[in-house]
């Protein structure tokens, strides 16, 4: 049987630097755990625009459809701000999500013990926090029609449409319930059923799917209250399921309260392929950080943790994912710090590639 395949799309800004460290980890698994992957690499975002005039070439899209998993770094940068909306770096990312039909976006927000002091919230509010946001990723106001800027009388009107079908809500809800079953059997669904019809339907469908999961304690919250509760008492949540736009906002909020934006991975999953693996793309939650790109300052941990999610969700290697996560915790507990993690208590300052090397050392020590 051939090795599982991975397409790496480093993208822009710090993307290529952090992805180089992921490459070390992938190679380690091939050499030390007999888990070899066929890795190919291609362009996305501004890097693809510079070469092809589009943020994602058709050939790259076709490759992404064929591989077992896509790993993406980050897209965007000031250089591309002037581009037309249709070829902005972000459009490459959105095309991947849409055409691969990656409807379930898993965004864990976890507070690492060694970093609890970094949160803008009090330590006891966030210490031990471990929640999972499931964001619907291929529909809603991001893709709904009609959309555009139109003339209306003597002025213009900007239109976007929030649109959800029952089946779209249902499959996102099911992904969230399945996750809840593997975690603490607690799920909170967030929408604005008080003002939006799409929210009323969302609540109805999630409740209906919930009947298939009687063990899961399901609750509903208006998304604005959800934002407030996330900041007030985040540990009341375990799994949260919500739509594309609310999920975008709530996941940034949840990420920041862990104090470790440079640490958070994500997985975007679709339907199972012929080989049983889900269509999948993994990427760090952070952006391309153009201000520090190319200086060896970036923290590669979010991107490496995204590969850990790939081990767990695409390659059925949950134990190896845990090995990698534990190695990272060990390195952090030892005080190894990229610039973004350097707090008043100090630590050993390291560059992007030194952080990667330390993680490899910890992996070696785990054998
Ligand atoms: C995210 C980002 C994207 C989004 C952008 C870059 C298009 O904010 O992944 O959360 O809005 O979905
Ligand atoms: Mg976002």
TrEMBL record:
Record's subcellular location: Cytoplasm
Transmembrane segments: none
Span of domain Isopropylmalate dehydrogenase-like: 5-359
Catalytic activity: (2R,3S)-3-isopropylmalate + NAD(+) = 4-methyl-2-oxopentanoate + CO2 + NADH
Subunit structure: Homodimer.
Residues holding Mg(2+): 224, 248, 252
EC assignment: 1.1.1.85
Site (Important for catalysis): 142, 192
Keywords, sorted A to Z: Amino-acid biosynthesis, Branched-chain amino acid biosynthesis, Cytoplasm, Leucine biosynthesis, Magnesium, Manganese, Metal-binding, NAD, Oxidoreductase
Protein family membership: Belongs to the isocitrate and isopropylmalate dehydrogenases family. LeuB type 1 subfamily.
Biochemical pathway: Amino-acid biosynthesis; L-leucine biosynthesis; L-leucine from 3-methyl-2-oxobutanoate: step 3/4
Record-given protein name: 3-isopropylmalate dehydrogenase
Positions bound to substrate: 97, 107, 135, 224
